[in-house]
Amino acid sequence: MIELANGNIMMASWNGGISEYDLRKKICVRSAKIDIEYVDFLLELKDERIAFTVNDNAHIYIYDKNKNDKKFTTLVGHNKNVIKLIQLENEQIVSASNDGKVKFWVKQDENFINSMTLYLFNDYIRNMIMLSDGRICVCADDKCIRALGVKNNIGNFFVKYVPLDREGKGNCFEIVDNRLN
Questions:
Q1: Which of 19, 29, 46, 135 has a Cα at 20 to 30 A from 168?
Q2: Three-class DSSP category at 81
Q3: DSSP code of residue 110
């Protein structure tokens, strides 16, 4: 469930649908039935479309809530389920998947194309967040944390990470400054 820019709530249901609710009026504003079992993650894009991922599915779906045709754009590129989506200031989408890859999707017209794939991990990615300084932080089962700096949002990436030893100990909280000037 997410709060939309208009103050409404968008949520996914277990029975294959996504719905928008106006909590002030206590009504369902719109909904779309989709042929999937379980939606994992929702993200409102800057153009007010909704990006979402599906459990046990390697695709990213884009839903235009302002169109009545209820059609979805599908982004294909990962080999395992996508666990997290982030949108950058320049409207690029960043996706992290259990295939160990982070992908950057560039908006072209109304669609997105994969512009870059980073092969960061040999194991499942568990989480990805946007830090307040603009870096993207990714962690995985191989006990590494990797921070990605994006320079001018044109695909120049610097990767720094701090590995942990097998017991999960080590210098994992060392401050690594890879901010770009």
A1: 135
A2: coil
A3: T
Q: What is the largest CA-CA distance in the chain?
A: 53
The DSSP output letter for 57 is: -
pTM: 0.76
Sign of the CA dihedral 80, 81, 83, 85? positive
Task: Write out pLDDT tens, residues 89-118.
Answer: 878 899 999 888 899 898 888 788 888 888
Using DSSP, state whether 124 is helix, strand or coil.
Answer: coil
* Backbone torsions φ then ψ of 158, nearest 5 degrees: -120, 125
The first and second tokens of residue 163, run together, are: 């590995």
Answer yes or no: are the C-beta atoms of 62 and 50 closer than 8 Å.
yes
DSSP state of 68: T
Radius of gyration of the chain (CA): 17
Strands of 39-44's sheet, edge to edge? 39-44, 50-54, 60-63, 72-75
Per-residue pLDDT of 4-47, as tens digits, reads 888 999 887 766 678 889 999 999 988 877 766 677 788 888 88
Q: Which pair of structure tokens corresponds to residue 110?
A: 């109304």
C-alpha to C-alpha distance for 124 and 170, rounded to whole angstroms? 21
Q: Which long-range contacts (CB under 8 A, 24 or more apart) does 46-50 make?
A: 46/87, 46/91, 47/91, 48/4, 48/5, 50/10, 50/18
